[in-house]
Every structure is written in structure tokens, then in C-alpha cells.
Amino acid sequence: MAKKLPKLGIHLNLLKPQSNPEKIFVKLVKWLLSTGRYIFIFVEGVVLIAFISRFKLDADIASKKEAIDQQIPYIESLKSYEVLIRQTQLKLSTIDSTKISSLNYADILKKIANQTPGGVKIISINLQKKDVSQVTIQLSGQSQNNNDLSIFTSGLKQDQNFSDVNISSIGLEKGLINFSINASFKQTAGEVSS
Amino acid sequence: MKPNSSIYSRYFTYIKPVTRLPIVKTYGSTIFTLIIIIIFIFFAIKPTVETILVLQKKLTETSDVLDKVNKKANDLSLGKQNFDNLDPTIKSKLTQAIPDTVTLKSITQALEQTAKLHEASVSALQIQPIVINTKSENSAGTLAEIDFTFNIEGEYENLIALLQDLKSSSRLISIDSLSLSKLTEGSGLIMSITGKGYYIK
Question: Per the CB < 8 Å rule, is A57 touching B59?
């Protein structure tokens, strides 16, 4: 039995006329029926998918718009309530922030009074709110002697609420010491809320 | 006799058709395919894909709007329910604390009554000029302040009690500065308070 020889992979079309080239129109038709076919099918496929998805997207957008249009009259009917609610929220937040930031001036005056010895007389006192918890104090007074004034200033300095305590002016008049003190007072969180 | 073509042949040259060029013969169909693909990409696929993308973006935006509208409707519904359930006395207190109009009367009343309660005499009450604008019905409004200066005379203990009472006044009052000094006559003190009240503009 004869051995089967392997096939050669050469495809030679000897019938194709080499001397007489095909016309462009024929070439075009052949291209359209081979490579062009796949390109056209792909493009048509893409266009068809887009066409169908456009229908779907348009329908989705229309349904969403319809849902929005249905909600708008309901929201508009509650407009007066919205204004009332917003005003109430604004009032509540203002009351809250004002209460938090309000300083207890009576407590500050009491603390100054507690540090004042018997020989010191306060003539005037100014409290100016600096920020949420801080007050600048300017006070002027009279002291019978140097020792009382020293006790007063050291008492203020020892109190943790007071800071930057300094005597801005001092003078002697009719045997009494006239003085002015500048200081800062910081209220702690617990004191502010009370 | 020579034919005319051979006589004038030196004046002519043969131009080979482009389609017969070897390069065109070999790669012509490939180049044509590429050109067609490019044309389709630019004139058919690109506009189609762009349209789809635009529609998808529009759909996302509409979905967001719908979500927000639904959320707003739910929030308003819940807000209305909560507002209706709010105790009328709380509503009244809120309106007293921060009224919807300037209502200077309530500030002066609050200050005068507190002074009267603690046996202090009012020596001056000055309210800073305020500009009153027409209020829009459909807006929540903004917070406005009424600045005032309040001078009272009285005993130290009474003035301290007055200060404590102002904190719990029916009209919300905030004190910015305070000065206390001795009266030239008598044993009393004069206290000057600079503060502000609030209203919804």
C-alpha cells in the first residue's frame, strides 16, 4: 500500500485572468460580498442596538419625568409648612447658639466680689464680651493700703478663670490708692451652660 | 508611409492607470476597508454612541432629581407631622423668643418688667435704628438683630438677680457688654447693658 503524502497548502487559481484585470465595479461588488459584508453587519448591529436602547432610555426618562411631575404639586402644597419648619429650625438653632455662647455675667461679678478684700472698693467695672466664653474686664477702684491691693490682684491671678491680670494705672489721692486693672475672664464649659 | 501614431509618438507618454499599480493591486482592498471603517466610525457609530451617552447622562440626572424630589416630599411629610405634633406652648414660646416681626414692644416689656421685678429703676433704654423691609411670604427669612442699650439703677443684689432673670427672659436677649458703677448720690449702682434681641426678617 502506497504511503499517503502530506497535502501542500498552495491554492493557485490558474483560471483567474491575470492579463485582463477586473473592473472597479466588479471589485467593489466582490468586496461588498466579502469584507464589506461583515463591516456593514457590524455597523447595522450597532445602529440597531442604539435605536432600541434609545427607545428604552427615552421611555425611562419619560417615566422619571412623570414621577417628578406627580411629586411637584404635593411639594408645592406643603410650601407654607416648609417655610414654618425652616423658621422653627432657624429659631431653635439661634436659641441654642445664643444660650451656649451667653456668658453668666452675674457669676463673673460674684467671682470678682469674692476676691475683693474689705479694704478695696470697686468704683466701676466694665465687662466686654470677647468671644463665646471670654470677657475682657476693666475695673477701677480704691484701696486703703498697698497690702489690700496686692491681695486683690494676687487673688485674681490665682483664680483659674482670670488671666492677663495687670494694673494699668495706679495713683495716690487723699491717702487712698486709686488703681485700674485690666484682666480677661474665661468661662469653662460647665459655667457657660449654667 | 508611416502611420501618424509612430510619427507623433515622441510627443506622447503612457500613463499607467492608478488601479494597475502593484501597490494598489495588493493593498487596495485593505486600504478601502480601512477608509470605510473610518467613515462608519465617524459618521455612524460616533453620533449614535454620543446620543446614547447623552441620553444615559440625562437619565442619571433625572434619576437624581427624582430621588431628591422623593426625599424632599418624605422629609416635608415627616416635618409636617413633627410640626403638628409640637406642643402649642413650645410654638408660642419660640415665637415669643424670636418673633417673625420686629416687635419692639416685647423687648421693652421684657426689660422693663425684669427691672420692675427686682426693684430697679430704668434710667434709659435706647434702641439702635433698624431698617424694616417688606417680608416675603414664601421665604423662611433670615435672622436680624435689634441692638439696644439699657441703663438701670438699683442695689447690687437686685442687679445681679436682674442679670440672671434676663437670661431666662421670654424674649431671647444676648448681652454683649456690661458696665457697673457707683451712683454719685446714694448707695445704689448704675448698670449699663449693651445687648441685642432677635427677629426673623
Answer: yes
Render pLDDT for A121-178 as a digit per residue (tens, 0 to 9): 999 999 999 888 889 999 999 998 889 889 999 999 998 889 999 999 999 888 889 9
Q: To the nearest whole angstrom, how far is the Cα of A4 from the nearest Cα of chain B?
A: 36
In three state form, how does the secondary structure of A78-105 look?
Answer: CHHHHHHHHHHHHHHHHHHHHHHHCCCH
**Which residues numbered 41-80 in B keep a CB inside 8 Å of some CB on A?**
44-45, 48-49, 51-52, 55-56, 58-59, 62-63, 65-66, 69-70, 72-73, 76-77, 79-80
**Low-confidence winner among A114-123, B49-58, B132-141, B165-174 (lowest mean pLDDT):** B132-141
Q: What share of chain A is helix, strand, coil (3-state, %, to 5)?
A: 55, 20, 25
Asked if B194 contacts B177 with a C-beta cutoff of 8 angstroms, the reply is yes
Helix, strand or coil for residue B43?
A: helix
CA pair distance A49, A44, nearest whole angstrom = 8
pTM of the model: 0.71
Q: Contact A57/B52 with Cβ under 8 angstroms?
A: yes
